[in-house]
Amino acid sequence: MLHIKFSKQNKSVCEECGNHLSMDSMERIKPSIDPNTWIPLDEDTISKDVLSFYDEESYENRLISSQEKTGLPKAVQTGIGYSNGTLIAPGVMDFQFMGGSMGSAVGEKITRLIEYATQKLLPLVLVCASGGARMQEGIVSLMQMAKISSALHYYQVQKKLLYISILTYPTTGGVTASFGMLGDIIIAESKAYIAFSDKRVIEETLGQKVPNGFQLAKALFENGLLDLIVPGILIKDVLSEILD
């Protein structure tokens, strides 16, 4: 049994087992940004149902219910703020909004944040928590991978600015296949699930058994895909040290 008060004080990390509990985007922003310094950007950017998509219910209704559930217009929050006195441009995905899936609005917000950070010469920090590209927007959602990666290329290669990617549970699909793994420094939270395709999909496609733990942070670190594994409670301090 975990008491909410003490759980929040410990950044939603269980003191007994070290497992990280789910957190919404604001729960990640508040402890990472200095008090009264957070300024959100592009809050009016919203997704459109360009395909009139319908499965068990319409995409439009899914958007409305997710907005009511989370209080957010889309699955990412972007802005600027100070972290231990250093001005940064963070973007934080919210898995509670349609599984943190990346639609046109998410891609546009992240791209605008990168462009703003490029213009103002700010360090960029993106916190990933996503099921991947949003299927209800089809090819439009897939194109966000290229759009964000292109903006990042200019930011990193042409301007030589610092991008830190933080991978949380879960980071999958098109987010892993684009900006999630493009950080100059890639940090994963302890025991985070990070993958492109799910274990079941890989096994059914290739007809091969995937080892247990193959897609957890520790295995990725041992195979050179991550730079650091950091418990959530230490993320702000580690960011501060890197930025210094």
From TrEMBL:
The keyword Zinc-finger applies. GO terms for molecular function: acetyl-CoA carboxylase activity; ATP binding; transferase activity; zinc ion binding. Keywords: ATP-binding, Metal-binding, Nucleotide-binding, Transferase, Zinc, Zinc-finger. One of its GO terms (cellular component) is acetyl-CoA carboxylase complex. GO terms for biological process: fatty acid biosynthetic process; malonyl-CoA biosynthetic process. Residues 1-244 form the CoA carboxyltransferase N-terminal domain. Acetyl-CoA carboxylase is a heterohexamer composed of biotin carboxyl carrier protein, biotin carboxylase and 2 subunits each of ACCase subunit alpha and ACCase plastid-coded subunit beta (accD). This is CoA carboxyltransferase N-terminal domain-containing protein. The lineage of its organism: Eukaryota, Viridiplantae, Streptophyta, Embryophyta, Tracheophyta.
